Amino acid sequence: MVSTLLLGALMLLPGISVSANACVERPHGYCKQLDIPLPITADTAVFDIPRVDNDIEAVSWAIYDATRTTIHGPGNIIKNTTTSETFNIHAQLCVPKSTKNGKHNILQIATHGVHYDSRYWDSEYKPENHSYVEAALKAGYSIFTYDRLGVGQSDKPDAYDVVQAPVELEILRQLTFMARNGSLYEFAGHAKPSIPSFKSLAAPHKVVHIGHSFGSFLTSAFIARYGPLTDGAIITGYLFTTQLASAGSTSFSVEYAATGNPPFNRSSGYVVAQRDGIQNIFFGGNPKTAFTPELLDYGISIKQPVPIGEFASAFSLLGNPGPSFRAPVQFLLPELDFYICRGDCRGLANMTELNATYPHATKIEVALQPNTGHALPLHNNATAGFQLIFDFFSRNGL
Ligand SMILES: *[C@@H]1O[C@H](CO)[C@@H](O)[C@H](O)[C@H]1NC(C)=O
Ligand SMILES: *[C@@H]1O[C@H](CO)[C@@H](O)[C@H](O)[C@H]1NC(C)=O
Ligand SMILES: *[C@@H]1O[C@H](CO)[C@@H](O)[C@H](O)[C@H]1NC(C)=O
Ligand SMILES: *[C@@H]1O[C@H](CO)[C@@H](O)[C@H](O)[C@H]1NC(C)=O
Ligand SMILES: *[C@@H]1O[C@H](CO)[C@@H](O)[C@H](O)[C@H]1NC(C)=O
Ligand SMILES: *[C@@H]1O[C@H](CO)[C@@H](O)[C@H](O)[C@H]1NC(C)=O
Ligand SMILES: *[C@@H]1O[C@H](CO)[C@@H](O)[C@H](O)[C@H]1NC(C)=O
Fold it and tell me: Which terminus of the chain has fewer Cβ atoms in its 10 Å neighbourhood, N or C?
Protein backbone atom coordinates (compact mmCIF):
# COMPACT_ATOMS: atom_id res chain seq x y z
CA MET A 1 0.00 0.00 0.00
CA VAL A 2 1.20 3.48 -0.84
CA SER A 3 1.65 5.17 2.51
CA THR A 4 -0.60 8.11 3.33
CA LEU A 5 2.39 10.44 3.30
CA LEU A 6 3.57 9.23 -0.08
CA LEU A 7 -0.01 9.41 -1.35
CA GLY A 8 -0.18 13.02 -0.20
CA ALA A 9 3.11 13.83 -1.91
CA LEU A 10 2.03 12.18 -5.17
CA MET A 11 -1.22 14.11 -5.23
CA LEU A 12 0.75 17.36 -5.19
CA LEU A 13 2.43 16.45 -8.46
CA PRO A 14 0.49 17.73 -11.46
CA GLY A 15 -0.96 15.03 -13.70
CA ILE A 16 -0.62 12.24 -11.17
CA SER A 17 -3.61 11.24 -9.16
CA VAL A 18 -3.46 8.28 -6.88
CA SER A 19 -6.66 7.32 -5.17
CA ALA A 20 -6.82 5.21 -2.04
CA ASN A 21 -8.65 2.66 -4.19
CA ALA A 22 -5.49 2.13 -6.23
CA CYS A 23 -3.81 0.66 -3.16
CA VAL A 24 -3.04 -2.99 -3.61
CA GLU A 25 -3.07 -3.71 0.11
CA ARG A 26 -6.22 -3.14 2.14
CA PRO A 27 -6.81 -3.73 5.85
CA HIS A 28 -8.42 -7.09 5.08
CA GLY A 29 -7.25 -8.00 1.60
CA TYR A 30 -5.40 -7.27 -1.62
CA CYS A 31 -6.91 -5.57 -4.67
CA LYS A 32 -5.81 -5.32 -8.26
CA GLN A 33 -7.03 -2.93 -10.97
CA LEU A 34 -7.73 -4.61 -14.31
CA ASP A 35 -8.55 -3.45 -17.84
CA ILE A 36 -10.24 -6.37 -19.55
CA PRO A 37 -10.79 -6.38 -23.32
CA LEU A 38 -14.13 -8.13 -23.70
CA PRO A 39 -15.54 -9.23 -27.09
CA ILE A 40 -19.33 -8.79 -26.97
CA THR A 41 -22.10 -9.65 -29.42
CA ALA A 42 -25.64 -8.69 -28.45
CA ASP A 43 -29.02 -7.63 -29.84
CA THR A 44 -29.43 -3.86 -29.85
CA ALA A 45 -31.86 -1.43 -31.44
CA VAL A 46 -32.31 2.04 -32.83
CA PHE A 47 -34.94 3.59 -30.55
CA ASP A 48 -37.28 6.45 -31.29
CA ILE A 49 -35.90 8.76 -28.57
CA PRO A 50 -34.97 12.46 -28.61
CA ARG A 51 -31.37 13.64 -29.05
CA VAL A 52 -29.64 15.41 -26.17
CA ASP A 53 -26.93 17.97 -26.94
CA ASN A 54 -27.51 20.66 -24.32
CA ASP A 55 -29.15 21.31 -20.93
CA ILE A 56 -32.56 22.20 -22.36
CA GLU A 57 -32.66 18.99 -24.36
CA ALA A 58 -31.50 17.04 -21.28
CA VAL A 59 -34.48 18.22 -19.19
CA SER A 60 -36.72 17.78 -22.21
CA TRP A 61 -35.56 14.14 -22.46
CA ALA A 62 -36.33 13.59 -18.76
CA ILE A 63 -39.88 14.94 -19.26
CA TYR A 64 -40.26 12.76 -22.38
CA ASP A 65 -39.02 9.71 -20.43
CA ALA A 66 -41.42 10.40 -17.53
CA THR A 67 -44.43 11.14 -19.76
CA ARG A 68 -47.23 8.66 -19.06
CA THR A 69 -47.76 7.69 -22.69
CA THR A 70 -44.09 7.23 -23.61
CA ILE A 71 -43.50 3.65 -24.71
CA HIS A 72 -40.78 1.76 -22.84
CA GLY A 73 -40.79 -1.41 -24.87
CA PRO A 74 -40.31 -2.99 -28.30
CA GLY A 75 -42.98 -0.64 -29.70
CA ASN A 76 -40.40 2.14 -29.49
CA ILE A 77 -37.93 0.38 -31.78
CA ILE A 78 -37.25 1.86 -35.24
CA LYS A 79 -34.81 -0.86 -36.28
CA ASN A 80 -33.39 -4.00 -34.65
CA THR A 81 -29.59 -4.23 -34.84
CA THR A 82 -26.70 -6.35 -33.61
CA THR A 83 -23.69 -4.89 -31.82
CA SER A 84 -20.47 -6.84 -32.09
CA GLU A 85 -17.48 -5.07 -30.55
CA THR A 86 -14.61 -5.50 -28.11
CA PHE A 87 -15.04 -3.18 -25.14
CA ASN A 88 -12.51 -2.28 -22.50
CA ILE A 89 -14.00 -2.98 -19.09
CA HIS A 90 -12.23 -1.53 -16.08
CA ALA A 91 -12.47 -3.74 -13.01
CA GLN A 92 -11.06 -4.52 -9.61
CA LEU A 93 -10.46 -7.98 -8.16
CA CYS A 94 -9.92 -8.26 -4.41
CA VAL A 95 -8.99 -11.33 -2.38
CA PRO A 96 -9.14 -11.53 1.43
CA LYS A 97 -6.02 -11.82 3.60
CA SER A 98 -7.57 -14.43 5.83
CA THR A 99 -8.61 -17.73 4.29
CA LYS A 100 -9.61 -19.24 7.64
CA ASN A 101 -13.36 -19.53 7.01
CA GLY A 102 -12.88 -20.81 3.44
CA LYS A 103 -15.02 -18.06 1.92
CA HIS A 104 -12.14 -16.78 -0.21
CA ASN A 105 -13.24 -19.56 -2.59
CA ILE A 106 -16.53 -17.71 -3.09
CA LEU A 107 -16.30 -14.81 -5.55
CA GLN A 108 -18.89 -12.05 -5.40
CA ILE A 109 -19.48 -10.24 -8.70
CA ALA A 110 -20.93 -6.80 -7.96
CA THR A 111 -22.77 -4.69 -10.56
CA HIS A 112 -23.47 -1.02 -9.73
CA GLY A 113 -26.43 1.06 -10.90
CA VAL A 114 -26.91 4.21 -13.02
CA HIS A 115 -25.47 7.60 -11.97
CA TYR A 116 -22.48 5.78 -10.43
CA ASP A 117 -19.51 3.57 -11.27
CA SER A 118 -17.82 0.79 -9.29
CA ARG A 119 -16.80 3.24 -6.56
CA TYR A 120 -20.38 2.83 -5.34
CA TRP A 121 -19.23 -0.46 -3.78
CA ASP A 122 -15.95 0.84 -2.46
CA SER A 123 -16.32 4.19 -0.70
CA GLU A 124 -13.07 6.07 -0.19
CA TYR A 125 -14.87 8.12 2.45
CA LYS A 126 -14.64 6.22 5.78
CA PRO A 127 -14.14 2.88 4.01
CA GLU A 128 -14.35 0.90 7.26
CA ASN A 129 -17.98 2.07 7.60
CA HIS A 130 -19.09 2.55 3.99
CA SER A 131 -17.10 0.34 1.62
CA TYR A 132 -18.92 -2.88 0.77
CA VAL A 133 -15.66 -4.19 -0.70
CA GLU A 134 -13.88 -3.75 2.66
CA ALA A 135 -16.77 -5.41 4.49
CA ALA A 136 -16.81 -8.38 2.08
CA LEU A 137 -13.03 -8.85 2.47
CA LYS A 138 -13.37 -8.64 6.25
CA ALA A 139 -16.06 -11.35 6.06
CA GLY A 140 -13.59 -13.49 4.09
CA TYR A 141 -15.05 -13.23 0.54
CA SER A 142 -13.30 -12.49 -2.72
CA ILE A 143 -14.99 -9.69 -4.63
CA PHE A 144 -14.97 -8.42 -8.21
CA THR A 145 -16.33 -4.95 -9.05
CA TYR A 146 -16.37 -3.33 -12.49
CA ASP A 147 -17.33 -0.10 -14.20
CA ARG A 148 -20.32 -0.82 -16.42
CA LEU A 149 -20.08 0.26 -20.06
CA GLY A 150 -20.33 4.06 -20.38
CA VAL A 151 -18.97 4.99 -16.93
CA GLY A 152 -15.78 5.31 -14.90
CA GLN A 153 -12.72 3.98 -16.69
CA SER A 154 -14.58 1.60 -19.01
CA ASP A 155 -15.30 2.48 -22.65
CA LYS A 156 -17.97 5.10 -23.31
CA PRO A 157 -19.51 4.29 -26.69
CA ASP A 158 -22.57 5.78 -28.40
CA ALA A 159 -25.24 6.72 -25.83
CA TYR A 160 -28.19 5.97 -28.13
CA ASP A 161 -27.43 2.81 -30.11
CA VAL A 162 -24.71 0.92 -28.20
CA VAL A 163 -24.88 1.26 -24.40
CA GLN A 164 -28.05 -0.81 -24.06
CA ALA A 165 -29.34 -3.41 -21.61
CA PRO A 166 -28.64 -6.56 -23.72
CA VAL A 167 -25.02 -5.47 -24.25
CA GLU A 168 -24.57 -4.99 -20.52
CA LEU A 169 -26.19 -8.33 -19.73
CA GLU A 170 -23.76 -10.00 -22.13
CA ILE A 171 -20.83 -8.20 -20.44
CA LEU A 172 -21.96 -9.64 -17.09
CA ARG A 173 -22.29 -13.09 -18.67
CA GLN A 174 -18.80 -13.03 -20.23
CA LEU A 175 -17.24 -11.76 -16.98
CA THR A 176 -19.00 -14.61 -15.16
CA PHE A 177 -17.70 -17.16 -17.67
CA MET A 178 -14.19 -15.80 -17.11
CA ALA A 179 -14.62 -16.04 -13.33
CA ARG A 180 -15.93 -19.59 -13.49
CA ASN A 181 -13.39 -21.01 -15.94
CA GLY A 182 -10.37 -19.46 -14.20
CA SER A 183 -9.38 -17.09 -17.00
CA LEU A 184 -10.28 -14.03 -14.88
CA TYR A 185 -7.87 -15.05 -12.12
CA GLU A 186 -5.24 -15.94 -14.70
CA PHE A 187 -5.67 -12.48 -16.28
CA ALA A 188 -5.35 -10.89 -12.82
CA GLY A 189 -2.22 -12.94 -12.16
CA HIS A 190 -0.52 -11.55 -15.26
CA ALA A 191 -1.69 -7.94 -14.88
CA LYS A 192 0.74 -5.39 -13.42
CA PRO A 193 1.77 -4.84 -10.69
CA SER A 194 2.96 -8.29 -9.73
CA ILE A 195 1.46 -9.27 -6.35
CA PRO A 196 2.15 -12.66 -4.75
CA SER A 197 -1.49 -13.14 -3.63
CA PHE A 198 -2.63 -13.09 -7.27
CA LYS A 199 -0.10 -15.60 -8.60
CA SER A 200 -1.60 -18.96 -9.56
CA LEU A 201 -4.96 -18.28 -7.89
CA ALA A 202 -7.25 -21.28 -8.34
CA ALA A 203 -10.61 -20.49 -9.96
CA PRO A 204 -13.29 -19.75 -7.33
CA HIS A 205 -15.40 -22.74 -6.22
CA LYS A 206 -18.53 -20.63 -6.23
CA VAL A 207 -19.59 -17.44 -7.98
CA VAL A 208 -22.39 -15.30 -6.53
CA HIS A 209 -23.87 -12.10 -7.91
CA ILE A 210 -24.86 -8.86 -6.22
CA GLY A 211 -26.47 -5.84 -7.81
CA HIS A 212 -27.64 -2.39 -6.93
CA SER A 213 -30.48 -0.55 -8.72
CA PHE A 214 -29.89 -0.84 -12.51
CA GLY A 215 -27.16 -3.34 -11.55
CA SER A 216 -29.97 -5.30 -9.89
CA PHE A 217 -32.13 -5.04 -13.05
CA LEU A 218 -29.13 -6.74 -14.70
CA THR A 219 -28.44 -9.22 -11.90
CA SER A 220 -32.09 -10.32 -11.58
CA ALA A 221 -32.33 -10.80 -15.36
CA PHE A 222 -28.99 -12.62 -15.36
CA ILE A 223 -30.00 -15.17 -12.70
CA ALA A 224 -33.37 -15.60 -14.44
CA ARG A 225 -31.91 -16.31 -17.87
CA TYR A 226 -28.65 -17.99 -16.93
CA GLY A 227 -29.52 -19.70 -13.63
CA PRO A 228 -26.78 -22.37 -13.83
CA LEU A 229 -24.10 -19.64 -13.98
CA THR A 230 -24.73 -18.41 -10.43
CA ASP A 231 -24.56 -19.95 -6.95
CA GLY A 232 -26.57 -17.23 -5.22
CA ALA A 233 -27.69 -13.64 -5.59
CA ILE A 234 -28.30 -10.45 -3.63
CA ILE A 235 -30.62 -7.95 -5.26
CA THR A 236 -30.27 -4.57 -3.53
CA GLY A 237 -32.33 -1.46 -4.27
CA TYR A 238 -34.68 -3.12 -6.73
CA LEU A 239 -38.08 -4.76 -6.73
CA PHE A 240 -40.29 -5.13 -9.80
CA THR A 241 -43.58 -3.48 -8.80
CA THR A 242 -45.85 -0.77 -10.19
CA GLN A 243 -43.98 1.72 -7.97
CA LEU A 244 -40.65 1.07 -9.73
CA ALA A 245 -39.44 4.34 -11.30
CA SER A 246 -42.87 5.90 -10.70
CA ALA A 247 -41.08 9.02 -9.40
CA GLY A 248 -39.89 9.48 -12.98
CA SER A 249 -36.64 10.55 -14.60
CA THR A 250 -37.40 14.23 -13.90
CA SER A 251 -36.43 13.43 -10.28
CA PHE A 252 -32.82 12.98 -11.51
CA SER A 253 -32.62 16.74 -12.19
CA VAL A 254 -30.34 16.14 -15.17
CA GLU A 255 -28.10 18.42 -17.19
CA TYR A 256 -26.06 17.72 -20.33
CA ALA A 257 -22.97 15.77 -19.20
CA ALA A 258 -20.43 17.39 -21.56
CA THR A 259 -21.15 20.88 -20.15
CA GLY A 260 -22.24 19.86 -16.65
CA ASN A 261 -20.90 20.87 -13.25
CA PRO A 262 -18.31 19.40 -13.36
CA PRO A 263 -18.15 18.77 -17.12
CA PHE A 264 -17.57 15.15 -18.23
CA ASN A 265 -15.78 14.00 -21.38
CA ARG A 266 -18.88 12.47 -22.97
CA SER A 267 -20.58 12.55 -26.35
CA SER A 268 -24.17 13.36 -27.33
CA GLY A 269 -26.90 11.61 -25.31
CA TYR A 270 -25.09 11.39 -21.96
CA VAL A 271 -26.89 13.21 -19.12
CA VAL A 272 -25.82 13.70 -15.52
CA ALA A 273 -27.75 14.31 -12.27
CA GLN A 274 -27.28 17.58 -10.37
CA ARG A 275 -26.91 17.79 -6.56
CA ASP A 276 -30.62 17.71 -5.77
CA GLY A 277 -31.10 14.84 -8.21
CA ILE A 278 -28.51 12.73 -6.40
CA GLN A 279 -30.25 13.44 -3.08
CA ASN A 280 -33.71 12.68 -4.56
CA ILE A 281 -32.64 9.30 -5.90
CA PHE A 282 -30.05 8.02 -3.47
CA PHE A 283 -30.58 9.51 -0.02
CA GLY A 284 -33.52 8.85 2.26
CA GLY A 285 -34.69 8.60 5.85
CA ASN A 286 -34.44 11.10 8.66
CA PRO A 287 -31.82 13.65 7.51
CA LYS A 288 -30.61 14.03 11.12
CA THR A 289 -29.94 10.33 11.68
CA ALA A 290 -29.92 8.44 8.35
CA PHE A 291 -26.92 10.08 6.67
CA THR A 292 -24.54 13.01 7.14
CA PRO A 293 -23.85 16.05 4.91
CA GLU A 294 -20.39 14.50 4.33
CA LEU A 295 -21.94 11.29 2.99
CA LEU A 296 -24.22 13.29 0.68
CA ASP A 297 -21.23 15.31 -0.56
CA TYR A 298 -19.28 12.12 -1.18
CA GLY A 299 -22.27 10.61 -3.03
CA ILE A 300 -22.34 13.72 -5.24
CA SER A 301 -18.56 13.71 -5.79
CA ILE A 302 -18.60 10.18 -7.33
CA LYS A 303 -21.59 10.73 -9.65
CA GLN A 304 -21.34 9.57 -13.27
CA PRO A 305 -23.24 10.44 -16.45
CA VAL A 306 -25.89 8.10 -17.87
CA PRO A 307 -26.38 7.25 -21.58
CA ILE A 308 -30.09 7.62 -22.42
CA GLY A 309 -30.14 4.42 -24.52
CA GLU A 310 -29.89 2.54 -21.23
CA PHE A 311 -33.34 3.83 -20.23
CA ALA A 312 -34.90 3.08 -23.62
CA SER A 313 -33.66 -0.53 -23.52
CA ALA A 314 -34.07 -1.32 -19.79
CA PHE A 315 -37.51 -2.93 -20.32
CA SER A 316 -35.85 -6.12 -21.61
CA LEU A 317 -34.45 -6.78 -18.11
CA LEU A 318 -37.75 -6.52 -16.25
CA GLY A 319 -39.91 -9.45 -15.18
CA ASN A 320 -37.82 -12.21 -16.79
CA PRO A 321 -39.02 -15.61 -15.52
CA GLY A 322 -36.26 -17.65 -13.85
CA PRO A 323 -37.11 -21.37 -13.84
CA SER A 324 -33.42 -22.29 -14.25
CA PHE A 325 -32.35 -20.49 -11.05
CA ARG A 326 -31.73 -23.10 -8.34
CA ALA A 327 -29.93 -21.10 -5.66
CA PRO A 328 -30.74 -18.67 -2.81
CA VAL A 329 -31.65 -15.04 -3.48
CA GLN A 330 -32.07 -12.14 -1.06
CA PHE A 331 -33.85 -8.91 -1.95
CA LEU A 332 -32.33 -6.24 0.28
CA LEU A 333 -34.45 -3.11 0.14
CA PRO A 334 -33.68 0.24 1.74
CA GLU A 335 -36.84 0.86 3.77
CA LEU A 336 -37.31 4.38 2.39
CA ASP A 337 -36.16 3.93 -1.22
CA PHE A 338 -37.70 6.77 -3.24
CA TYR A 339 -36.90 5.62 -6.79
CA ILE A 340 -37.76 1.93 -6.36
CA CYS A 341 -40.65 2.08 -3.86
CA ARG A 342 -41.70 5.73 -4.12
CA GLY A 343 -40.26 6.32 -0.67
CA ASP A 344 -41.63 3.33 1.26
CA CYS A 345 -40.70 -0.29 0.59
CA ARG A 346 -42.66 -1.71 3.53
CA GLY A 347 -45.22 -4.29 2.44
CA LEU A 348 -44.43 -3.94 -1.26
CA ALA A 349 -42.83 -7.35 -1.87
CA ASN A 350 -45.32 -9.98 -3.02
CA MET A 351 -43.97 -13.43 -2.11
CA THR A 352 -46.46 -15.18 -4.40
CA GLU A 353 -45.04 -13.25 -7.35
CA LEU A 354 -41.40 -13.75 -6.33
CA ASN A 355 -42.02 -17.50 -5.87
CA ALA A 356 -43.58 -17.61 -9.34
CA THR A 357 -40.64 -15.73 -10.90
CA TYR A 358 -38.01 -18.03 -9.36
CA PRO A 359 -39.99 -21.26 -8.85
CA HIS A 360 -36.91 -23.42 -8.13
CA ALA A 361 -34.97 -20.98 -5.95
CA THR A 362 -33.69 -22.78 -2.85
CA LYS A 363 -34.55 -19.70 -0.77
CA ILE A 364 -36.15 -16.30 -1.40
CA GLU A 365 -35.80 -13.71 1.34
CA VAL A 366 -36.86 -10.07 1.47
CA ALA A 367 -35.03 -7.89 4.00
CA LEU A 368 -35.53 -4.19 4.77
CA GLN A 369 -32.74 -1.92 5.93
CA PRO A 370 -34.37 0.67 8.26
CA ASN A 371 -34.01 4.47 7.98
CA THR A 372 -32.04 4.17 4.72
CA GLY A 373 -32.46 5.48 1.15
CA HIS A 374 -31.50 3.97 -2.21
CA ALA A 375 -27.70 4.14 -1.80
CA LEU A 376 -27.33 1.65 1.04
CA PRO A 377 -23.56 2.02 1.59
CA LEU A 378 -23.81 5.80 1.93
CA HIS A 379 -26.06 5.81 4.99
CA ASN A 380 -24.90 5.80 8.63
CA ASN A 381 -26.02 2.25 9.39
CA ALA A 382 -24.43 0.73 6.26
CA THR A 383 -22.27 -1.90 7.97
CA ALA A 384 -25.33 -3.41 9.70
CA GLY A 385 -26.95 -3.62 6.25
CA PHE A 386 -23.86 -5.36 4.81
CA GLN A 387 -24.11 -7.86 7.68
CA LEU A 388 -27.65 -8.81 6.58
CA ILE A 389 -26.09 -9.96 3.28
CA PHE A 390 -23.28 -11.98 4.88
CA ASP A 391 -25.72 -13.57 7.36
CA PHE A 392 -28.00 -14.58 4.48
CA PHE A 393 -25.07 -16.12 2.62
CA SER A 394 -23.94 -18.01 5.75
CA ARG A 395 -27.44 -19.35 6.45
CA ASN A 396 -27.46 -20.69 2.90
CA GLY A 397 -24.05 -22.35 2.83
CA LEU A 398 -22.24 -19.49 1.11
C1 LIG B 1 -37.57 -5.72 -33.09
O2 LIG B 1 -37.55 -6.94 -32.37
C3 LIG B 1 -38.59 -7.05 -31.40
C4 LIG B 1 -38.35 -8.30 -30.56
O5 LIG B 1 -38.06 -9.38 -31.39
C6 LIG B 1 -39.93 -7.07 -32.10
O7 LIG B 1 -40.98 -7.15 -31.15
C8 LIG B 1 -40.07 -5.77 -32.88
O9 LIG B 1 -41.27 -5.80 -33.66
C10 LIG B 1 -38.89 -5.55 -33.83
N11 LIG B 1 -39.00 -4.21 -34.37
C12 LIG B 1 -38.71 -3.90 -35.62
C13 LIG B 1 -38.94 -2.49 -36.03
O14 LIG B 1 -38.31 -4.72 -36.41
C1 LIG C 1 -17.28 2.55 11.88
O2 LIG C 1 -16.13 1.75 11.84
C3 LIG C 1 -15.43 1.71 13.07
C4 LIG C 1 -14.14 0.94 12.83
O5 LIG C 1 -14.41 -0.33 12.32
C6 LIG C 1 -16.31 1.08 14.14
O7 LIG C 1 -15.65 1.09 15.37
C8 LIG C 1 -17.61 1.87 14.24
O9 LIG C 1 -18.49 1.21 15.14
C10 LIG C 1 -18.27 2.00 12.91
N11 LIG C 1 -19.43 2.85 13.01
C12 LIG C 1 -20.63 2.49 12.52
C13 LIG C 1 -21.70 3.50 12.69
O14 LIG C 1 -20.84 1.43 11.95
C1 LIG D 1 -13.28 -18.68 -20.40
O2 LIG D 1 -14.36 -17.80 -20.75
C3 LIG D 1 -13.98 -16.70 -21.59
C4 LIG D 1 -15.20 -15.80 -21.72
O5 LIG D 1 -16.27 -16.47 -22.31
C6 LIG D 1 -13.47 -17.24 -22.91
O7 LIG D 1 -13.07 -16.17 -23.74
C8 LIG D 1 -12.28 -18.16 -22.65
O9 LIG D 1 -11.87 -18.75 -23.87
C10 LIG D 1 -12.64 -19.27 -21.67
N11 LIG D 1 -11.43 -19.98 -21.31
C12 LIG D 1 -11.39 -21.29 -21.14
C13 LIG D 1 -10.07 -21.86 -20.72
O14 LIG D 1 -12.36 -22.02 -21.33
C1 LIG E 1 -12.27 12.27 -24.31
O2 LIG E 1 -12.86 11.06 -24.79
C3 LIG E 1 -12.38 10.68 -26.06
C4 LIG E 1 -13.22 9.49 -26.52
O5 LIG E 1 -13.34 8.52 -25.53
C6 LIG E 1 -10.90 10.36 -25.95
O7 LIG E 1 -10.39 9.96 -27.20
C8 LIG E 1 -10.16 11.60 -25.47
O9 LIG E 1 -8.81 11.29 -25.24
C10 LIG E 1 -10.76 12.11 -24.17
N11 LIG E 1 -10.19 13.39 -23.83
C12 LIG E 1 -9.68 13.64 -22.64
C13 LIG E 1 -9.17 15.02 -22.41
O14 LIG E 1 -9.63 12.80 -21.73
C1 LIG F 1 -49.68 -10.99 -4.88
O2 LIG F 1 -49.65 -11.41 -6.25
C3 LIG F 1 -50.68 -12.34 -6.55
C4 LIG F 1 -50.42 -12.86 -7.97
O5 LIG F 1 -50.23 -11.78 -8.85
C6 LIG F 1 -52.04 -11.67 -6.39
O7 LIG F 1 -53.07 -12.59 -6.66
C8 LIG F 1 -52.16 -11.18 -4.95
O9 LIG F 1 -53.37 -10.45 -4.81
C10 LIG F 1 -50.99 -10.28 -4.57
N11 LIG F 1 -51.03 -10.01 -3.15
C12 LIG F 1 -51.06 -8.78 -2.70
C13 LIG F 1 -51.09 -8.63 -1.21
O14 LIG F 1 -51.04 -7.80 -3.44
C1 LIG G 1 -43.08 -19.01 -1.28
O2 LIG G 1 -42.29 -20.20 -1.29
C3 LIG G 1 -41.85 -20.64 -0.01
C4 LIG G 1 -40.90 -21.80 -0.22
O5 LIG G 1 -41.49 -22.74 -1.07
C6 LIG G 1 -43.05 -20.98 0.84
O7 LIG G 1 -42.62 -21.37 2.13
C8 LIG G 1 -43.94 -19.76 0.94
O9 LIG G 1 -45.12 -20.10 1.66
C10 LIG G 1 -44.32 -19.23 -0.44
N11 LIG G 1 -45.04 -17.99 -0.24
C12 LIG G 1 -46.15 -17.70 -0.91
C13 LIG G 1 -46.84 -16.43 -0.54
O14 LIG G 1 -46.57 -18.39 -1.82
C1 LIG H 1 -29.18 -0.84 11.68
O2 LIG H 1 -29.43 -1.91 10.80
C3 LIG H 1 -29.72 -3.13 11.45
C4 LIG H 1 -29.86 -4.21 10.37
O5 LIG H 1 -30.92 -3.94 9.52
C6 LIG H 1 -31.00 -2.97 12.27
O7 LIG H 1 -31.25 -4.17 12.97
C8 LIG H 1 -30.82 -1.83 13.25
O9 LIG H 1 -32.05 -1.59 13.92
C10 LIG H 1 -30.41 -0.56 12.50
N11 LIG H 1 -30.14 0.49 13.45
C12 LIG H 1 -30.72 1.67 13.36
C13 LIG H 1 -30.33 2.64 14.41
O14 LIG H 1 -31.54 1.94 12.48
Answer: N
